[in-house]
């Protein structure tokens, strides 16, 4: 039984031009202990998908307009607000790109962690809370945790702040960690530290991770399965190995080919995807990638392609995947 | 400038920012943003400057144009010292050296049309008639792949990638000899980033432009550069050709930087060197080799004696006391600890 099942999830925002659907019938599952990558460029709906799962869309502008989110055998849609709050930060925890926006700047790190833990274990005494906080800081590789506990967030480096956020997320021993671009603001050597930490913690605790990023390199490194999103819809989903070895969607192919490679020849022409991502107010009918796609034909501009199985565990939303394959 | 002389010669470039504190805001320390940086750049060549946040790469770029006043050092552009130039000479210099920043939105006047923005360099330098300037602006738009009607629109009506095209159009308006690109593609999505990189490479070939390409992403820097200088805590630790820096990195920091880059291939074998700790503060950088606090090859003298940037071969250089044994160890698969 999957840990999380998202089925036909749609989310919309109110804009000056009326309600705009930014996530359109997205479905995927995450198994216990699995790492699923959600990848796509700015505005593809990956973060909104995560916030919809958590019931954290900004109100009143944003709302879930369709679909279901199941966690084990419970449906998160039907939960009263109070029960949903218990799920959040308890069974499901979330970390963000910029920990500074999530940490309280005028409260010592130790106190914030103690608060997170006390929510989970309200009966724990002061000594037990303190020792658990120390243990959490140690678990996320913060040196001299007893000293760090007494510091304020601004005294920590970006990497250390992200470690504190991860410690806070771990306080309740969640079954699922949603990580939204947690390493995007970090330098590459610090990113390597955080990715290693997440991998180690997962082995240790068996939690599942939904990892949201625009960086296909990070996906390849961390994730066993990948969902590729484009303009609010799923374009392709597959195991990481299959996706990188044999991408089927023209968008995935274009994206992989656009990345400058370290082993590539300097000063050569890079493959590009022409044009730009359509804005939320100007989403085309049919396949949303059609106007940038080298394989686009009339049917692509008329009908949205369904997500179709092309191999076991490999789905692609493209009318022309067979043609693309042969090309 | 005599034949064969580099377009740009930077020698001992240093920039310290004062740190003020106390009630009288006295100077209590110095941020060593850039320390003793030297390099040459030829006509039509690209030098990549790479390193992590706070390594001083952007400060180098800005000091070259005197957007920051260098603390010491010389910058010779076509043989003339930029550091000694007066205002009139500097204005003349900025026809030859331009800069493209990460977010052009911050450098494009939001209340001017794109046409007006592109005509401005000609107005400042008193070139052409109004009709000519309009025609030149239209030509610039076409050259960077934007429609002519873009001239009547405002910067906020464009996407990030299109705004960067406008920033590039303005930079090439006066046909400069050198453009400093400071994280010019870092904020762009990968499918747009590749469009802009191709445009820069095209323009370079067409105009014989020299580029200083500053970025934190080594794969991107390597893609556009002829030579690369790797910086750490204000200093250049290694220079080499773009190919060599990846194939045979000599400095332990360069090795760690390359090894930290996630490779978009799940089957790639990762024997990663994960650097411990954070970059130390540039206010009080470590004595000796600035990297020794995080270096897995460090020995006692690394903490006392500063390694000089030493020429190794073919214009490559490295600042490490033990680069020979480090390169050897790396070839054999690391120190094995």
Strand order of the largest sheet of chain A: 6-7-8-3-9-10-12-11
Q: If interface size is counted as residues with C-beta under 8 Å from the partner's C-beta, which chains form the largest one?
A: A-B, 47 and 50 residues
Count the beta strands of chain A.
12
Low-confidence stretches of chain B: none
Could you say which structural class the secondary elements and strand pairing of chain A correspond to? alpha/beta
Distance linking N and C termini of chain B: 52 Å
Bin the strand percentage of chain A: 15-25%
* Number of helical elements of chain A: 13
Average pLDDT of chain A, to the nearest integer? 93
Radius of gyration of chain B, taken over Cα atoms and rounded to an integer in Å: 21 Å
The biggest beta sheet of chain A is recorded as: 8 strands, mixed
Strand content of chain B: 15-25%
Averaged pLDDT of chain B? 92
How are helices and strands ordered from N to C of chain A? EEEHEEHEHHHHHEHEHEEHHHEEH
Give the terminus-to-terminus CA distance of chain A.
Answer: 38 Å
Oligomer: heterodimer
What structural category do the secondary elements of chain B indicate? alpha/beta
Q: What this model shows, in words?
A:
The complex is a heterodimer of chains A (327) and B (337). Chain A has helices at residues 46-54, 81-87, 99-102, 109-120, 126-139, 145-148, 158-170, 188-205, 216-222, 240-245, 250-258, 298-302, 321-326, and strands at residues 4-15, 18-30, 35-39, 62-71, 74-75, 92-95, 176-180, 208-213, 225-230, 233-239, 308-311, 314-316. By secondary structure, chain A is of the alpha/beta class. In chain A, strand 4 and strand 5 (74-75) form a beta hairpin. In chain A, helix 4 runs parallel beside helix 7. Chain A is globular. Chain B has 337 residues and is an alpha/beta fold. Chain B has eleven helices and twelve strands. Chain B has an eight-stranded mixed β-sheet, with helices on both faces. Chain B has a four-stranded antiparallel β-sheet with strand order 2-1-4-5. The longest helix of chain B has 18 residues, at 190-207. The chains are: A alpha/beta (327), B alpha/beta (337). At the A-B interface, helix 8, helix 9, helix 10 and helix 11 of A face helix 6, helix 7, helix 8, helix 9 and helix 10 of B.
